[in-house]
Each structure stands twice: as structure tokens, then as C-alpha cells.
Write a structure and sequence with these properties.
Protein name: Heterokaryon incompatibility domain-containing protein
Radius of gyration: 25 Å
Number of domains: 2
Mean pLDDT: 80
Organism: Cladophialophora psammophila CBS 110553
InterPro entries: HET, HetReg/Transcr_Mod
Helix content: 25-40%
Structural class: alpha+beta
Number of strands: 12
Pfam families: HET (PF06985), Het-6_barrel (PF26639)
Strand content: 5-15%
Number of helices: 19
Length: 478
């Protein structure tokens, strides 16, 4: 009964309520499926705004995973608890024999629908205490970290954890948010959005609203207001613009792959978080962007979106162009040997520069760069992926290019000859832009956004030094 009338609930919620009823102690519960009228958009928006307070103040968050489980699943849950008790120093991993013994249970457990819901990221990150209930078994988030994530990740089945590892990562990122600068928090929020890209939600707007509680912890209470009367396009645009103007960071632009967009009318600079494109490799590149500082510290407080949000909103930034794309190679979405041979023919210049580009300047020792170059030239019998998986992860679904000044680089799939290369204040990396068909003599610096890039020789603020100082000017993205 709710408000004196019957209220339909799911079978799983019914099972959870029966479990609560059978416990010896009385409990005061807040259950989203009952306490929020999902059919009332205004009430739904108000409750979403309160999520951080609800989960922060709850004495305990109970997660009901289900009543029935197979023998394999039950044995695996018991093994998690046992491993957690013995793994106090976070160093013990599963043996090959243990992995084989519990393989069916591991596959079944990681495939549970619960782990792939968008909303659980903030629910578990904000909670003070979390207990998972599965049949007669009970375990905590700490048990999961010690008995599953830490212990299983190094094994052959560790790949199964990729899609649910963000659950623990979200808690870590949120704990760091209290001491981070706004620029740092923008990067951490961007990382959470990468993590949630493969999670599931019925409403594409919840890709953003599902993390609203975390956002307000990182910034402030009025950072973003949930509004289910806005279209998905407006929600995504409003959020991206606010994050840029609040933080002064362009980290959010690195998520844009607009050739895969499904939201009609979305500005080219706004990521489409509803896209089902696999962004795991873009997420892989994210931590390596942190060491770059292509725009230096210039004009730190001058980022703002254009006033108002129209059907085609524009973003106003400061920056400068430093050249164009002269030639492009194949996209790395086919046979590696064919792709890398094509790229090397396109750029016969410095072997060190080419090798640095292939690994985003991750390896600094000359010996490492020599090894990478030998592999890419095809002089080694060792497969590229086996010897240096980093090369594949850094270049997958990327297109190699050479600038008109002869600099090698990597850009999005959609990079074309004639595209402009830009340094934008607030961005750690250079960006690829394309002249807008709407540009005029009075507004020549109007561009569409292609994506983030790597250009060897400009990643550490080199273009801001020396006698040829570039002048920052207004650049508009649409």
C-alpha cells in the first residue's frame, strides 16, 4: 500500500521486502521504486536532486541481489568472503585452481543485471556503509574489493571485472574530490562518465542525472538542476557547458566522438553519452592526458559558453590555430601490420618522434623507443599486441596524420586533410577543428569540433614559448 492505495512493485522488490520482514530488528527504509513516483517528471527531478543527501545520511545501504542462486554462485560468494578474510593486506590473488573451480560462479556473478545499472555508481559511492544481500549470503563493499577486484584482476578472468570495476573506482574518486581543485574534479568527473558509458539506463538523460549527487559533492549544490522536461540534447549541452564554465577545464571535450552520435542536433563539441560506441580505449588514454599541458596556464579564467542555449548552441573559447592536417593515414580498425606500414610510409621522418606518437609519449627511455620502432617497422617476429599492447590501446580507432609543418599526430577517426589544429586555453591536449560552413567574413573563427589529438612537439606548451609567440583569440565551436 502507498498513500492508502495499492502500488505495483517488481518481483525482486517483493522478495527484498520479504527478507526485511523476516529480520529480527525493525528498520526504517527508503526505497526508490516506492518513494519516487517515476511517472511524475517534476517529483522525479526533485528526488534526483536529493539523492546525495539520502545516501549520505543513510545508516546503511542494503543491496538486494536476489533470492535464488545456483550452487556455483553460492560457492563463489562463500569464496569471496573467505578470500576477503585472508586478504587483509590486499596482496593475495586467486590461484589458477581457484579460478577454474569457480569459473561458472564468477561468470554468473559478474553478469548480474544490477552491476550494469547507471544509478548504482553514485548510490554506492555516496553511501557510508553498503551490504549486499544474496540469498542467505551477505558481504560488504570492502569484501568485494579484497575478495574479488584485487584478488581476481590479475588472473585470466580479470577481464570480466572491467565493466563493474567502476563501482569501487567511483568511491575512490569521490573521496579524492574533497581535496581536489575544480580543474582536478573536472578530470575525475570525466573519468566517471567514461566508466558509466557501458552501464545501462532506460532514460538517456540519466547518463548525467545518475551522477548528479557526485557532481554536487565535487562542485556545489547548484551546479546542475535535474529537469526531465528538457530534451536529451539540452541536458547534455547544458551539462557540458556548465562543467567547462565552472571548472575552466576542457577535459570533457575529450569524450566527443560525434561520428557515432545518436542524439539528433547535438552540437559537435558536446559528447553523446547515449552512444553505444565502445569508449574503453578513449578511457584508457585519459590518464595519460594528465601529464600534458599544451595550453600552459594562459588565460585561466576566460572560458565561458555563449549566452543562452538555442537549438544550435555555440561554445566560446580562447586559443589559436597552429597549422592544418596535410595528410591522413588509415584508421586503426583493421590488420595492424597494414595500418602501421601505411603510417610509417606517410611519415618517413624521425623514428623517435614517430615512436613517441604511437605510445602518446608514455615511454621516455631511448631503449624503449628503439624497441617500439623496431616492432612497428615489422623487423621483429613478435606480434605487436603481445610485445606492446599499449601501442594498440593508444592507437585503436585513431587516425594517424601529418601536419603541414611535418609534425606527426593521432586524431579521431573523422580527421581529414585540411582540418585545423588548435591549442585551446584550458585544454591539456591539442584539438582538431573543421571550418564551419556557417563561418563568414565577420565570424571567421567558427568551427565544428572533430576531437582531441596528439601532435608530437606541442604537448608540453612548446608553442607558448620562444620568439614566435601565438596570440590567443576567440574561437567559437558549434
Amino acid at each position: 500500500m502507498r498513500g492508502g492505495s495499492q502500488w505495483p512493485i517488481t518481483r525482486r522488490l517483493h522478495e527484498a521486502l520479504e527478507w526485511v520482514r523476516d529480520q529480527e530488528t525493525e528498520k526504517t527504509l527508503w526505497i526508490d521504486a516506492i518513494c519516487i513516483n517515476q511517472y511524475d517528471l517534476k517529483e522525479r527531478a526533485q528526488q534526483v536532486q536529493l539523492m546525495q543527501h539520502i545516501f549520505r545520511r543513510a545508516a546503511n545501504v542494503l543491496v538486494w541481489l536476489g533470492r535464488l542462486m545456483s550452487d556455483a554462485m553460492e560457492n563463489f560468494i562463500l569464496a569471496i568472503n573467505k578470500k576477503a578474510l585472508s586478504n587483509r593486506d590486499f596482496r593475495s590473488s586467486w590461484s589458477e585452481a581457484e579460478v577454474r573451480e569457480h569459473q561458472d560462479g564468477i561468470v554468473e556473478f559478474t553478469g548480474l543485471e544490477y552491476w550494469h545499472r547507471t544509478w548504482i555508481i553514485q548510490e554506492l559511492a555516496l553511501a557510508r556503509s553498503v551490504h549486499f544481500i544474496f540469498g542467505s549470503q551477505r558481504f560488504t563493499m570492502k569484501d568485494l574489493e579484497k575478495g574479488l577486484f584485487v584478488a581476481l584482476m590479475p588472473t585470466a578472468l580479470g577481464q570480466l571485472l572491467r565493466d563493474i570495476r567502476h563501482i569501487a573506482n567511483a568511491s575512490d574518486l569521490l573521496s579524492l574530490a574533497t581535496t581536489e581543485s575544480r580543474d582536478g574534479n573536472a578530470g575525475r568527473l570525466t573519468q566517471l562518465l567514461y566508466m558509466s558509458r557501458c552501464s545501462r539506463c532506460s532514460d538517456p538523460r540519466d547518463r548525467i542525472y545518475g551522477l548528479l549527487g557526485i557532481m554536487t559533492n565535487m562542485f556545489d549544490a547548484d551546479f546542475l538542476e535535474a529537469d526531465y522536461e528538457q530534451s536529451t540534447m539540452d541536458v547534455y549541452t547544458n551539462f557540458a557547458g556548465r562543467l567547462i564554465s565552472k571548472s575552466g577545464s576542457l577535459a570533457i571535450l575529450n569524450q566527443t566522438e560525434h561520428v557515432f552520435n545518436s542524439v539528433v542536433g547535438l552540437p559537435t563539441w558536446v559528447p553523446d553519452w547515449s552512444s553505444r560506441f565502445n569508449h574503453s580505449y578513449a578511457a584508457f588514454r585519459k590518464p595519460y592526458h594528465e601529464k600534458f599541458n599544451a595550453s600552459g596556464t594562459h588565460l585561466k579564467d576566460t572560458y565561458w559558453p555563449a549566452p543562452g542555449y538555442t537549438l544550435s548552441p555555440k561554445l566560446k573559447l580562447c586559443g589559436f590555430l597552429f597549422g592544418r592536417v596535410r595528410a591522413t593515414g588509415l584508421c586503426n580498425d583493421r590488420r595492424y601490420d597494414e595500418v602501421f606500414l601505411d603510417w610509417r610510409k606517410l611519415y618517413p621522418g624521425s623514428a623517435k618522434s614517430f615512436s613517441r606518437t604511437m605510445v602518446l609519449d608514455h615511454f621516455t627511455r631511448p631503449a624503449d623507443l628503439r624497441d617500439i620502432y623496431v616492432i612497428l617497422q615489422g623487423f621483429s617476429a613478435v606480434p605487436i599486441g603481445q610485445y606492446h599492447p599499449f601501442i594498440l590501446e593508444a592507437t585503436l580507432f585513431r587516425r594517424f596524420f601529418v601536419s603541414e609543418k611535418g609534425l606527426p599526430g593521432l586524431g579521431p577517426i573523422d580527421t581529414r586533410e585540411g582540418d585545423s589544429l588548435a591549442i585551446l586555453a584550458g585544454g591539456k591536449v591539442p584539438y582538431i577543428l573543421r571550418k564551419s560552413p556557417n563561418a563568414t567574413a565577420s565570424s571567421p573563427n567558427l568551427f565544428t569540433f572533430v576531437g582531441e589529438g596528439y601532435v608530437d612537439g606541442v604537448m608540453y606548451g612548446e608553442l607558448l614559448e620562444g620568439p614566435e609567440a601565438h596570440v590567443f583569440e576567440d574561437i567559437w565551436l558549434e
